[in-house]
Amino acid sequence: xxxxxxxxxxxxxxxxxxxxxxxxxxxxxxxxxxxxxxxxxxxxxxxxxxxxxxxxxxxxxxxxxxxxxxxxxxxxxxxxxxxxxxxxxxxxxxxxxxxxxxxxxxxxxxxxxxxxxxxxxxxxxxxxxxxxxxxxxxxxxxxxxxxxxxxxxxxxxxxxxxxx
Length: 164
Prior knowledge:
By secondary structure, this protein is α/β, with parallel strands linked by helices. The protein is 37% helix and 19% strand. The chain has 5 helices and 5 strands; from the N terminus they run E-H-E-H-E-H-E-H-E-H.
């Protein structure tokens, strides 16, 4: 079986990390990378020209996981929502023999605002990422009104169908 790189993108507060963690825990011989771990700086700013350095770190970690023969590598990041950044990260992966499978999680503005407020993030809720179109070929999953486990089950059904 070829290794699977499962990409999970979407707006901040849409549920990527919660879903990615649960999904990862439900597959044996798997690894998980939250893109936030690769560029955790203070103060954080999307205008910081050094931000793309984090993308190289993501490519490096993903390459190591894939080269370590994990069957499933789960990767969550808001930057995967941007097609050019996603492609740059994928192009930086040196491992071979894997299939990328993309998911975009989405929800309503109302749900995103509630999740943002519940998380306690400072400032206003940004809907910028929420309204970007999904990357071509991504499976889009609306998380409105769903618990984390329900989204995980839906993703597992898509993955099972993909693996057949």
